[in-house]
Amino acid sequence: MRILNISAQKPDGTGSGTFLAQTVAAQAAAGHLTAVICGMDDGAATDALPAQALVFPVRFNTSELPFHVCGMSDEMPCAATLP
Question: Could you name the domain of life of the organism this protein comes from (predicted)?
Fold first, then answer.
């Protein structure tokens, strides 16, 4: 099966990001082709995801997106902007 996972959060460091990383790891271990679209700061690593997952990060703090990742709280493990 081909599975696309989408999250506005980076794939580690937050509850939803940790859940995303573990879900993708379980999908890959079951033999599924997995892909992830996720929001993260420019330069942040995606190594929390399995190597076989296709990762398409949406990079914030760049010339194209010159602001922080949107978050639900100002108490994030990375710089965030309230919506």
Answer: Bacteria
